[in-house]
Amino acid sequence: MRAAAFTDLTGPDGVNLVERPTPEPGPGEALIDVEACSINHHDLWILNGASAMIDPTDLPFVTGLDVAGVVRDVGDGVTGVAPGDRVVLCPNETCGSCRFCREGPENLCESYSLYHGGLAEQACVEADRLIPLPENVDATTAAALPTAYLTAYHMLRRAEVEPGDLVFVPGATGGVGVATIQLADLRGVRTVGTSSSASKLDAVSDLGADHTVQGTDPDHLREAVSDIGTPDAVINHLGGVYTGLGLDLMRRGGRMVICGRTAGPTSEIDIADLFRGHKRVIGSTMGTQTDLERLVELVAAGDLDPQIDRTFPLDETRAAFEAMVDRDAIGKLVVTMD
Ligand SMILES: NC(=O)c1ccc[n+]([C@@H]2O[C@H](COP(=O)([O-])OP(=O)(O)OC[C@H]3O[C@@H](n4cnc5c(N)ncnc54)[C@H](OP(=O)(O)O)[C@@H]3O)[C@@H](O)[C@H]2O)c1
Ligand SMILES: [Zn+2]
């Protein structure tokens, strides 16, 4: 089978097609004929050699978390899915026995990890992590959901937002950003989204953002967002300066949920404002399989239409990563197999 592998961790030039033996599903596993797999900034961190999640000497490496396709074969002991089933993978990998696996939420698992391997014609996965797809949910749409929409969905839960709340979303145009805008809109939550690009913000307004502010200068954003209102919460996947800025802007008792650091790994915060204002900073990673099941239901019901910027055939996976590096996408980039 063919796979789009990282042969060097030096950016998009390191993405190349390789031939791999078709894997055999072991006990508890299912072999999937992959139809679509979306890419995430998580994969780009790996491709840039900036992720501790993989061994950089163990190349080529096949990434791809967000797998949708058809079950081709199952290993011993698998009863939940059968060959021919259309499925999407929840990429959570958990130990199944720690206190968080026992009591929930599972994404706090002490040995939490993520599945990688979906940028290939076939993928061998844990069968218990497969969610059946209703007939009206196609594989490309389903592949948009697992990382970006799952993370945004879980963050909005952690932010305890309510209808009418105002949420600040720095970087509202990418995978997690657009997902946050759309899912907030579904809950009746108002949003202020930012981007460096005016045209991308126009698209994000069409997708449900109530307010948008173009720019990256923190002082400009501070003033423009304050003119709109006082955010009740911040959904922050950018980290960096957007963290101190979001905390400054947030109302007393507000919640900032952080899942990423695209704009930098550190930020200066006003500690006195944090405690005097009873503000909360909450770290969050991915979500639960139940969250993903709910997202599939929302799509099947016609309530959510994940924003897919473009699809790329497997042999153009490098171009998909180039688009992400160039910040040339609104929403998700999805690789599809023939
Ligand atoms: N912890 C978790 O479970 C988890 C899950 C998902 C994602 N994440 C993290 O969340 C972040 C977003 O992931 P994603 O897949 O949604 O990425 P993405 O699609 O590449 O995000 C693109 C967005 O980020 C903005 N952006 C890109 N580089 C920037 C920079 N240097 N400064 C400011 N803004 C910048 C873009 O703004 P413009 O519109 O201005 O181009 C755009 O809004 C990543 O850091 C990722 O690792 C974490
Ligand atoms: Zn566990």
UniProtKB/TrEMBL annotation:
One of its GO terms (biological process) is small molecule metabolic process. The keyword Plastid does not apply. Residues 11-335 form the Enoyl reductase (ER) domain. SMART domains: PKS_ER (SM00829). It comes from the Archaea. Residues 1-25 are annotated as: Disordered. The keyword NADP applies. One of its GO terms (molecular function) is oxidoreductase activity, acting on the CH-OH group of donors, NAD or NADP as acceptor. PANTHER family: QUINONE OXIDOREDUCTASE. This is Alcohol dehydrogenase.
